[in-house]
Amino acid sequence: MPDHNPPGFFIPPIYGQHIPARPMSPPTTDTEAPVDEFDDADSAFGGDSFIGDETKTLSSFITNYRYEYGRRYHAYRDGAYWGPNDEIANEQQDLAHHMYLLTLDGQLHLAPIENPQEILDVGTGTGIWAIDMADEYPSSRVTGVDLSPIQPPFVPPNCLFEIDDMTMPWTYSANQFDFIHIREMFGSIPDWDEFFRQCWRSLKPGGYIEVVEHSVEPISDDDTVGPDHFYTEWGKTVVQSGKVSGKTFTIWRESAERLRRLGFEDVVEHTYKWPMNGWSPDRKLHEIGRWNQYRLHDGVEGFMLRLLTSTLQWPYEQAQAFLAQMRANLRDYRTHAYLPGTVSYGRKPRNAPPEAEAAW
């Protein structure tokens, strides 16, 4: 290991060193899952997960993934989400879940929910939050929704997963859920107000919505991240990709106000910091920072490759050079950079009017 690594910190091998001339096609031997991969009685994907009589055809289509530059992306609603769904990306999601548990002192949510019976996890990813919630609230039914069937097949009996694009009109009943959880959906929603309206409609009166997001622009409190620092360039680049795609990456600082504007009550916003590495002398922030360094070192390719090459139309070689700069900066403990974030939650009024009579 290079001796500029922080003591005791393992920097794993860097992925993506091979530069193909064009996006790679998947290997012919092991890329497509069997048609009935999720047609198993023990699977978390129940009969309602794939709607209609064409389950096998739809399952085959959903698992016919797209491959770009050696990374695997979802097939259903291709391009709706910027990140890959391969094993490397899934590990980053689970690392982020661990970081959120550290951030929230072991809590899965901050909204003051009591005995919820119906819980919805939007953009569930690997399903790790939904599974933990199902264990914590065994009398509830937890539904996780994502574009990709990357969740484990064996889960608590009160947890199920569905494949859907939650930016499209929802098919859930009005007043169905006690709690709706949204985490790290930045860069994925074209119209957040419309998205929150659908959440409102599907929440029971008195039900809670919680939005957990963080910035993509590293900053500092001591000017070690200045206007000419690489982190500033990085943040501007990610934000610009959101402007080009029409899907903002700045929802972390807008969530609470949007919820208030749409009529949610008792809206609360908690802030947090994720250091870019272990520079902080604070024990908790130091630990979170070390995990964040590990997550980003492996994860920057998945986070950014499609945004850079497809959305911003960068050449592959330029994109990889940009990612290498980020990995190098992650090793610099002299820069006291962090990602600010928010946990925002609000309650649908108990006397909420029917949807047609709502203020919006």
From TrEMBL:
Superkingdom assignment: Eukaryota
InterPro entries xrefs: SAM-dependent_MTases_sf
Molecular function terms, GO-annotated: methyltransferase activity
Pfam families the record matches: Methyltransf_23
Gene3D superfamilies membership: Vaccinia Virus protein VP39 (3.40.50.150)
GO BP terms in the entry: methylation
Keyword line: Methyltransferase, Transferase
Protein name per the record: Methyltransferase domain protein
Native species: Aspergillus sclerotialis
